[in-house]
Amino acid sequence: MELADLAAGLSTRPGPYRLLAFGRLPSTNDHLCVLSREGAPEGTVVLAEQQTAGRGRRGRRWLSPPGVGLWFSVLLRPGRPARDAPLFALLAAAAVRAAVHEVTGAPALIKWPNDVVVGTAKLAGILAEVEGPVARAACIVGIGVNVNQTVDDFPPELRNTATSARLAAGRAVPREALLRAILEQLGPRYERALEEGFTSLLDEVSRYSATLGRCVQVTEAGSVWEGLAVGMASDGALLVRPHDRTEPVAVYAGDVSIRPASSQAGGVLL
Predict the structure, then answer these.
(1) Same domain, yes or no, for 145 and 222?
(2) Which of 43, 102, 106, 165 is the most buried (most CB within 10 A)?
(3) Is a pLDDT exceeding 90 seen at residue 257?
(4) Whole-angstrom Cα distance, residue 150 to residue 154?
(5) Residue 8 falls within a domain, yes or no?
């Protein structure tokens, strides 16, 4: 992948981007975490052709084979408390969704809290992690995008739940163009969030949500319950109205596991 001129003209904060490309890394997030501690500037991007220990939310393994995807992490220094990390994950998801639609025309949507999907199949995942002082933590946003996989490139157990930009578009997708589009979409959203807050971002996520209006199953502190996803709180929490209550409950990405509801009355599989 030719990256030398990729970031030219991308000056909106967190730009100017500084792209560091590697053939193979265990994890782009872990590598960027080390660079962050060493003082790397905001806008540093670590990209790997292959990850050998890529991971998603809750420590789940993320398959990162060479040649077919985008596996990269972006360093943000927003000067915001660590609790805002879920909002930056949603910000990145919104940028990826918009870039995928721009480059491929695919009707991508955002699945709370950190995925981009086409239909019910995952195309991209986001992992936002904090580094440094809690009050002014750096935020390392890992982004994994399935770009040119065919059905046969996915293991059998994932073929019904994963997709790629190529499968969504019906043609091969240039990874350089998609990476550039993601970074272009990320910058203005990040700048707007720092200047104006996250209201417009949450409106965008709600508009392109694959979760709101769906029935979900929440696993929380050993208990399991079902409800309708009705909105998002200002801190990015998902508001779920249990079937036996009239008021919604705020659930947080770090505390719960969200699954499709066993009963799909009024809902669709996530």
Answers:
(1) no
(2) 165
(3) no
(4) 7
(5) no
- Amino acid letter at 152? D
Does a structural domain hold residue 270?
no
- Among residues 146, 197, 202, the alpha carbon closest in space to that of 172 is found at 146
Residue type, position 82, single letter: A
User: Distance between CA atoms of 91 and 202, rounded to whole angstroms?
Assistant: 9
Half-sphere exposure of residue 169: CA atoms within 13 angstroms, side-chain side? 20
Q: What is the model's pTM?
A: 0.90
Domain that holds residue 249: 215-260
Both 132 and 222 in one domain: the answer is no
Task: Look at residue 157 and give its three-state secondary structure.
Answer: helix
Angle CA 106–144–202, to nearest 5: 65
Please state, in angstroms and rounded to a whole number, the distance separating the CA atoms of residues 270 and 256. 15
92: left (phi over 0), alpha (psi -120 to 50) or beta: alpha
What letter represents residue 131's amino acid?
E
Whether 170 and 220 map to the same domain: the answer is no
Q: Are 35 and 44 in contact (CB under 8 A)?
A: yes
Per the listing, tokens 């986001």 go with 126
Burial label for 33, CB within 10 Å (0-12, 13-18, 19+), is buried
Q: Of the residues 190, 207, 224, which one is the last residue of a structural domain? A: 207
| Phi, psi values for residue 242, rounded to 5° | -60, 150
- Give CA separation, 10 vs 2, 164, 231, in Å: 16, 26, 33
- Which phi and psi angles does 99 have, rounded to 5°? -70, -40
Residue 181 amino acid letter: A
Percent of the chain scoring above 90 in pLDDT = 70
pLDDT digits (tens, 9 = 90+) for 101-122: 999 999 999 999 999 999 999 9
